[in-house]
Write a structure and sequence with these properties.
elongated, 3-stranded antiparallel β-sheet, mainly beta, 3 strands, single chain
Length: 78
């Protein structure tokens, strides 16, 4: 199983009332586990704990709208 944490994109400029972008960061977890602190402007703060010593991986995963033929003003991919 791959523990996954994601947020719906409600911070994009094309949204009528965008929120701030959430943050994820690695924090010190209990012995034998990794921990991620997640902070969202509307949802608050949460922690995700992962057992074992596998490395944590973080990615933005923003959609490349131009490549998909979509015309959004905040598409930053070229």
């Amino acid at each position: 199983m791959l523990p996954t944490l994601w947020f719906r994109n409600d911070w994009a400029t094309w949204i009528a009332k965008p929120l701030g972008k959430p943050t994820l960061k690695q924090i010190e977890g209990p012995a034998g586990a990794h921990a991620i602190a997640a902070t969202h402007p509307a949802l608050g703060e949460y922690c995700l704990y992962c057992e074992g010593d596998a490395p944590l991986l973080f990615t933005e995963n923003e959609t490349n709208h131009a490549r998909l033929g979509l015309d959004y003003p905040d598409a930053v991919h070229t």
